[in-house]
Amino acid sequence: MKLVMVGSGYVGLVSGVCFADFGFDVTCVDVDESKIARLEAGELPIYEPGLDQLLAENVQAGRLRFSTDLATAAADADAVFIAVGTPSRRGDGEADLTYVFEAARQVARVAKPGTVVVIKSTVVVGTCRKVKEIIATERPGLDFSVASNPEFLREGSAIEDFMRPDRVVIGVHDKRGESALRRAYRPLYLRDSPMVVTTLENAELIKYASNAFLAMKVTFINEVADLCETVGGNVQEVAKAIGLDGRIGSKFLHAGPGFGGSCFPKDTRAFAATGQKHNTPLRLIETVISVNEDRKRRMAEKILEPLGSNPEGKKVAVLGIAFKPNTDDVREAPSLDIVPRLLEAGAIVAAHDPEAREQARPLLNEVTWADDAYDAVKDADVVAILTEWNEYRGLDLKRVAKLMRGNTLVDLRNIYKQEDLEETGLLYISVGRPRAGTPRLHAVSAKTA
Ligand code: UDX
């Protein structure tokens, strides 16, 4: 089976590499010549654990190639996956489908009869039907099928998610689309991964409803964390116990600085916009969006609070810029909202991130970049952990305390426990958990250790 991925971004690339690993002949196409040149040289444009090796192995085996020439690649493909971006449209939050439609037109011009065009990009309900019309108009008489195959890959564990998915969703309007996708995912079928074969519309809705639900779950626990802080509860204990209820489940109940990334913010906005457009407002999701926006502002205040009434010239060390660990992706990361607020308040910010520095540097001009966490915390009045990278979990906290000028550790990911800070002299502020002692709000430059 010959497969083509149109769009070699996160989704197209991971899917292309994994399909090649299943044994199919795959061409990953992109309009960005420099990206394709890098990929041909075996260099990855993104950081994703394990992807470099899998890519190299499949190129070596002759199953995977890269190209900017969509026409040639798509001309003899059995299935063409469209995995281009669907960014939020400015103003209304609707997903911008320009790239999807343009890719469909280009494929239509060259596709061989019987081709299945699979929409992998996250698209609002009704898009696949529109793609079908676009292809039929562009190339009247062409015998083709359209299918929807949304992805559920998490950055940082995308290969595992592709190889061992909770489910594969396949939206189709005919048997040919169904059998092409069943063939493409046959190796997973042998591993007993559930396949949901449904209509085009349902598949489109499943993707948005899944992400919106997860974003809602995170937002729910974040609000419970706020209440815990006010009434003296501990959100980790609450989350653990409610998660034991099989109907609720323990995942996505970690309180933090708010969700970010390339999917949740964009997809919740697009889902809410779809509701508005069809006069069926999704009020829960609209609230999730605004609660999450507000949260980032309040997290900046939480970091600034120990600096007292005049943060001017005080130093904050920010550990973690990526929206989550194991990725260099900073798209809509809470840090991009929080750090500018710290700077606006007059604080000096030193930042560290194991992978995201290059991506974040142009977006955070006034920040000093540190080579490691200890370098960042030197002379800091406050240290704030924004991303739960493994390397921040085992910091030598006594060393951190010694290097700092102040004494406050603000842990927005709850990776430490109060006991871990004993005998360090650090004051610990986390999310949704009781604070030990009274915060010393105006004496940050005097060490207690
Ligand atoms: C998400 C979906 O999980 C995936 O199925 C989809 O197809 C793409 O979007 P991803 O964007 O990689 O994947 O990130 P994810 O791990 O889902 O986390 C999203 C955000 O929620 C992050 O900012 C993360 O820090 C936050 N989060 C997640 C929490 O704050 N608490 C949690 O318990 C879980």
Could you characterize what this model shows?
With about 450 residues, the chain is an alpha/beta fold. The protein folds into 2 domains: about 1-200, Rossmann fold, CATH 3.40.50; about 210-449, NAD(P)-binding Rossmann-like Domain (Rossmann fold), CATH 3.40.50. Helix content is about 40%, strand content about 15%. It is built from 18 helices and 14 strands. It has an 8-stranded mixed sheet with strand order 3-2-1-4-5-6-7-8, sandwiched between helices. It has a 6-stranded parallel sheet with strand order 11-10-9-12-13-14. Strand 9, helix 14 (about 335-345) and strand 10 (about 350) form a beta-alpha-beta unit. The N and C termini lie far apart (about 65 Å). The structure holds uridine-5'-diphosphate-xylopyranose. Uridine-5'-diphosphate-xylopyranose (UDX) binds near residues 151, 152, 153 and 324. Uridine-5'-diphosphate-xylopyranose binds near residues 260, 262 and 263.
List the helices and strands and how they pair.
Blueprint: E1 2-6, H1 10-21, E2 25-29, H2 33-40, H3 51-60, E3 64-67, H4 70-75, E4 79-82, H5 98-110, E5 115-119, H6 127-138, E6 144-148, H7 158-163, E7 168-172, H8 175-184, H9 186-190, E8 195-198, H10 200-231, H11 235-243, H12 264-277, H13 283-304, E9 315-319, H14 334-344, E10 348-352, H15 357-360, E11 368-369, H16 373-377, E12 382-385, H17 390-393, H18 397-403, E13 408-411, E14 427-429
Parallel strand pairs: 1-2, 1-4, 2-3, 4-5, 5-6, 7-8, 9-10, 9-12, 10-11, 12-13, 13-14
Antiparallel strand pairs: 6-7
Helix pairs in contact: 1-3, 5-6, 10-12, 10-13, 12-13, 13-14
The structure holds uridine-5'-diphosphate-xylopyranose.
